[in-house]
Amino acid sequence: MTMTTSPQSEFTRGMKECSPMLIGLLPWALILGVQGGQKGMSWLEMLMMTSMNFAGGSEFAAVNLWAHPLPVLLIATVTFMINSRHILMGAALAPYLKDMPLKKVMPALFFMCDETWAMGLAEAQKRKAQGLPAFNMPYYAGTCAVMYLCWACFAALGAAVGPMFDDVAAWGFGMAFPAVFLVLMRGMWKGFAAARPWLVSLVTAAVTYLSADGAWYVPAGALAGLLSAYYWGERK
């Protein structure tokens, strides 16, 4: 990488390097759409939800909790707790974004998801080590363009054809999303000590799932993970 690379070439590189993740994510977007369609959501409603709330985990939670009457408080709580990880993700990017104007920072944070965040952060760390301006906005925009457009469009497609299918969970596509997250986690692995909040979150969520009805295991696991990360972070 050199200083002579153009924004267009960096944008294209971001799209290319992000594209292999679509192998795992596109089936998952279709599953989200199909499940929403089977719950009565139209393709337009699915498109609006995935476009305005670009966070797959909370979207699945909202669809799975969809019922009549609508549990608004539970859906709002679960959505907030799942998306609260974006606070920590944004904080990790903040040192690389501090010199950028707000009109660029805000769109960058809006389009941030787990995959674009991980790739943008890795790119920033690599550039910093090379003595280059840390945050590569064209590269990051390329990753966001691929993830955002494909996720929203394929989810809408799934909602459109959803009523034509039976239970798609039986197809086994459910492993695609966890597989992508495991790959991302492997790239950010810094040892077992740094992973303790993940373990606390997992155990808390599992205990809550086995002992309480509903989806309260989601906010319980998220809150436990955040608190443990804060506690161990303060002790360093």
UniProtKB/TrEMBL annotation:
The chain crosses the membrane at residues 60-82, 137-162, 168-185, 192-210. It is found in: Cell membrane. It is a multi-pass membrane protein. Keywords: Cell membrane, Membrane, Transmembrane, Transmembrane helix, Transport. The keyword Calcium does not apply. InterPro entries: Brnchd-chn_aa_trnsp_permease. GO terms for cellular component: plasma membrane. The keyword Membrane applies. Pfam families: AzlC. GO terms for biological process: L-valine transmembrane transport. Belongs to the AzlC family. This is AzlC protein.
